[in-house]
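User: Some background: our group keeps a shared notebook of sequences we're curious about, and every so often someone picks one and asks for a predicted structure to add to the entry. Today it's my turn. The entry only has the sequence so far, pasted here. Could you supply the structure so I can complete it?
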Amino acid sequence: MAAPKKGRRPTGAQGRPGRALAIILIAMVALTAGMFLTKQTTPRLGIDLAGGTSITLKAKSEPGKPDAINETNMNTAVGIIERRVNGLGVSEAEVQTQGRDHIIVNIPKGTNEQQAREQVGTTAQLYFRPVIAFADGAPVAPEGTASPSPSASGSGAPKAGDGKTSPSATPSSSATSQGRALSEALKAPAAPTPSPTASESKKADDKAPSPSASTPPTGDEAAAADLQAKFAALDCTNEAQRAAAGKGAKPEDPMLACGQRGDTWGKWILGPAQVNGQDVKEAKGVIDPQRGQWIVTMQFTDKGADKFAKITGELATKQMPQNQFAIVLDGRVISDPSVSQALTGGNAEISGGFTQQSAQDLGNMLSYGALPLSFSEDSVTTVTAALGGEQLKAGLIAGAIGLILVVIYLLVYYRGLAFVAIISLLVSAILTYTIMALLGKGIGFALNLPAVCGAIVAIGITADSFIVYFERIRDEIREGRTLRPAVERAWPRARRTILVSDFVSFLAAAVLFIVTVGKVQGFAFTLGLTTLLDVVVVFLFTKPIMTLLARTKFFASGHPWSGLDPKRLGAKPPLRRSRRTGSAPAPVDAKEA
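Assistant: Of course. Here's the predicted structure to add to the notebook entry:
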């Protein structure tokens, strides 16, 4: 007689439940330790729960562009502002249009509020302009030397610029040279100015404006003289004059500009723009390991690389300060490096006086591009968390009531099995909380009201997975099997159902996250995260725990309070096949024979 076949020993979590429990325990300890090491013991809260700052920006009309304020430009500006703010690590920031010419930016409290406020309305119009003249920021031309200029370098080239001082702006031969350069810039604004010949220099010197001239100059000379007069009178130490300097200047025209060098202000006459921000492909603030100072590295587009190589090659043949180019951001000079050779290769760096924040801010703005419109702050208001706090309190009360009802149902219907479900829910809650806290530090995730709703909905999803598995075990017991084989046979069927159910929930969360914006994404993100954690908890905790409990007398014997009592479940008698196996013929059959 053939002996009954032995079932194969289960593998993985079924055969080694202790290993699975050890994995999830290590994960919980590691996440909790990471939470304390990063000092982020609570999740970051969104603006509706923590309060924050609400900034209203108003688009400004520009001369010659009456139709610039339109839906396309406004939507483009919203996208750029949102990328800038998120680039600072500020998540859950809300950026949306209001009406025809307003943009509302909501920044949660506890993030880089001030830094984000400085960047949201910055137009970030970047131009590289050749320097014609430089002086200290006072309204009277100084007689001393200026502070050192920063230097620029290109890929594969040595540092261009030696850090020497800029020349003083005095009414001498230097002023004559500046006037000549300015006149040439006015004549040919779209291209770099070639070096004049000796005869042209003499002719220009003869025509240079003089304070004692009785006949006023005309044409380009008059414009140059007017710009020089404005340059001499410009006081860059005055905030109003700084803001007005170069305002409305076109890229193809010379301009006046102010800028800060350390603790002092300087002023410049700049030639037409040769390279603009659209020619910059990528920029970021990094620390130079050799010099130990912060710099901004730039990678140009192919077209921008050609432009940059051309202008630096032409400037390298000139004398200070006309061998410098000014990097002008929104009408203000942020750097004026000098060059001594053409910078080729499509890469360059800006150095000189940057802090970590200023370097990263500039790289952030250059990377995400210039706004198509100019904006002014219409209003800045502080948003309190009072209303959100009340709603959160109401939501938590509703969640607590729902959780209590679920626990009561589990205790009444599943009895001892209810403790397995409760402990599993506790494990899921610990994982969810620690991950949310770490994500706040890591990717800037902020918990808002919809995200809290997603976490509450996840209680039902997680409890549903336990119920599916428990019912499969009960079905096996009803078929007459003991608990240990019932636990193992029920798992494959329950596993398929759980995976399909969680896949549908995760797919819905992913679609919702992709097609929505703002706070609804918080709901979708939390729902997707908790759905993934449900799979982890069921596979690595609930199933191994059931395997271990099936070996205990309380559950294996079908105690009435275990929730697995065969009598209460209406179990069938033991299978007859097991009784007849190997048994002798009945005596009655022998007599009949």
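Suggested note for the entry: The chain has a mean pLDDT of 75. The longest helix spans residues 483-515.
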